[in-house]
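Lab meeting minutes (informal)
Scribe: AK
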Amino acid sequence: MTEYLWFLFSYLVGSIPNGYLIVKWVAGKDIRKIGREKLSGSNIIHNIGFLPGVVSGFFDIFKGILAVWGAYKLGFPENIQAIAGLFALCGQMWPIFLKFWGGRGGSVCIATILILSPKIFWPSALLWIFSKIFSKGMGAAIGMSLFCITSIVLGFYLSVESVVIFAIPAFILVLLQRLLGRPGSLSKIKDKKIILWRLLLDRDTKER
């Protein structure tokens, strides 16, 4: 019973709309209606400012850390810690406080893998960083996919069950969030190539 309460807590913490609140306070705007229409640190950096985006990203990372580390401190086994990270991820991407229209979930994924297994986190993170540097504007989406896939492969190879439990559904959820986009927008898509661009590039056009 206690673990279910922690799952609920993790989801609610993940749902805290820090990016939305920060942008409202700084610029008086709804960040979900600007740029890529996502409640994410990168969208805030590109359209509002570096500092607000970094602060928002830090809080998103903290959500994943709190969910997983808190589960560890409560004595829950590693599989429960991984599931708590998934609930925080769902909260960040589909926050109940903003009618389920949230961010990309990348920060929570990174934080969760970091706490579950630092030895898997670092090589996965390096691939993510290199992709951002060398992929000419496509790095955020491709890098997140590489991060998840590398974590899954290393999780199996190193027999870190908790990472596998988290990373496989996390990757699917991240792709689902990209595909759905703004609530109601998927059903309005006429050009089927947009579905591919959303899955690969996390945007509705091939160009940045």
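Next up, CB showed the second protein from the same session:
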Amino acid sequence: MEVNATSDCALEVRGVSLRFGGVRALTDVSFGVREGELFSIIGPNGAGKTSIVNCISGRYRPTEGQLFYRGRDITGLTTNARPALGIGRTFQNLALFHHMSVLDNIMVGRHHLLKNNFLTGSLYWLTGARREELRHRHKVEEIIDFLDLQSVRKTTAGTLSYGLRKRVELARAMAMEPKLILLDEPMAGMNFEEKEDMARYIVDLNEEFGMTVVMIEHDMGVVMDISHRVVVLDFGKKIAEGEPADVLADPHVRSAYLGEEDEALAGPDDAPRPLEASA
């Protein structure tokens, strides 16, 4: 039965648990993302950050709990059904077609928006298929301009630097015209200048394009600077949620990230859990 989520929530995660055999990846995780919000998911290594994003995108189906998007229960929807609702994502590990050009990779993101089928495609010049293709190409060119990819638009994606490939993956997600975009470590592996550029693009996505953004990110400086709210996971459980400054001051968060509670008892050779470990 469909249950209405909180009225101002674009996304609501209710009591989500995820098990792989005897391993619990997530345990009773709940949080809400407001419409138009830039929301970050943080936590140490193995906290379950990518697992929760995979549940939201449909890659995993929760063992328990429900997911709501704009009041609609999407828990049982397939991965392919979610883009049509306005949910897009990028991946922690790049998922580009390396043998294709940047332009063609971005065009792939428009696939679910195509209206012409085999029959109308065979009558390309007699139907609106050509006009439709031109409209989609115009949209892609706008995205290329926005992300400053003009100089590499015809370059084979596999030959680009890592930072540029991450930008192309963001462009492909944008091409889906999502209302909610899930970004899984969009700045991983980037140098300082590349991170600054990506942070600016993400803020513009949120403010100028009006996209609700859910982001996994380990650079705490970026998270604190651009996020409206943050949720913290540790060992698959939520330990904090709120505005960045409040979350950072939470003793449970400082313990999970910095090992502060254990520091007095730990020997000189005991190291805290790393702040920038990957999910």
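CB comment: The chain is about 35% helix and 20% strand.
No objections, moving on.
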